[in-house]
Amino acid sequence: MVSSSTGFNSGLDIGKSYYVATANPAPDHPALIGHVEADLVVVGGGCTGLSAALHAAQRGLKVVLLEGGKIGWGASGRNGGQMIPGLRKGAKGLVKAFGPERAKALFDLAFEARGLVLDIIERHAIDCDLRLSGHLVGAVNSSDLKDLEDEAECLARVMNFRDVEILSAAEARGKVDTPYHGAMYEPLGGHMHPLNYTLGLARAAVAAGVTIHENSVAVRLEREPSIKVSTATGSVRAKHVVLAGDALLQGLEPRVNSRIMPVGNYIVATEPLKGKRNVIPANVAVSDTRFVVNYYRMSADGRLLFGGGERYTPSPPADIAGFVRPHMEQTFPQLKGCRIDHAWGGLVSVTTSRLPHVGHYGEVYFAHGYSGKGVILSTLSGKLLAEAITGDASRLDLFSTLSPLPFPGGTALRGPLYVLGMLWYAMRDRIKH
């Protein structure tokens, strides 16, 4: 997160989240005061920035990381915690856009994120409620089930990936107690406590030699005669910079900002659900086939964490719990009236293609726009940035070919045009269902 948690991100109640309430102890990091030099300055203390910092430091670079608020209080520490290998665009979409050979190369690279995150968790002993119980995509109608069947066939035929299973309505109901028309089950998925993972990644980065400064909003980026990032109370001069602020990155690089749309994302955590009220007996992570996706899972202490609803502007609803509850109760009528103990939200970024925007302009490196798949993909992107900065850009170059088009009309018109587009898809969802 780049901006202050009490400024640009105010009103979204991250401090009231289930994740903050159950976070592992973590040190505070002092704000940047004065002028320092480094090999690499990273802007943003989420998983992208922390991973870039960690992997760069492990390659011998002196790294300084600037976080505008608190480590993990951006999208990395408040998301749904769903570990879903791959990209937001599925196998069929990748093949259509890039052809089978390049699509498989992109799929294989993206899939590395799973192994990387699991290795980091084990190597650095990160306690983050990891559950490798799988991910289920529920078909909201029968035509969606056919689409999932086609996706599974494409995964097997083009990607040589067969770790998916198509479930009947009854089989899906055995894993999650809501009446889907069927589902695609991905056993290599799972879920975790994203804030505790992010805090663990920060601990690993510090152990590798990274200097972290919290409450240090980056206000200016200069490129000549060399990279210099300034805050209100100091600056860092470096050979390279990584911009990893995602939806909260403001103004430092217009070519980056023009390719993402910040949108509101909201989650609730219920009271602990016991016995027959445990609506996900298989403990899988779940999302559905709506364009405006509902996604949910159980926490380690038995709460339903449910995210969803249609909010197309960055301004938050006045009552987050009241905003999300109808979507939760539509999915699980048996939970009508249950107590909601936590409700929070924040901004995430989407791109025109729903594929990440990763690459560099000279010595200015960036990665963002994961469009809902950033829980593990962000860690991989950070590693790819570090590889490129230290001399091997081959894998970053493959990802950079995904570069989405800027939003039409630039930052001034992207909001209204995006709202119109989302309203059209939301209307299509209602017609289909």
TrEMBL record:
Q: EC?
A: 1.-.-.-
Tell me the ranges covered by the Rhodanese domain, including all copies.
44-82
Q: Which UniProt keywords apply?
A: Oxidoreductase
Q: What InterPro entries does the record point to?
A: FAD-dep_OxRdtase, FAD/NAD-bd_sf, Rhodanese-like_dom
Under Pfam families, the record lists: DAO
The keyword rRNA-binding is annotated on this UniProt entry: no
| UniProt-listed PANTHER family | FAD DEPENDENT OXIDOREDUCTASE DOMAIN-CONTAINING PROTEIN (PTHR13847:SF281), SARCOSINE DEHYDROGENASE-RELATED (PTHR13847)
| Protein name as annotated | FAD-binding oxidoreductase
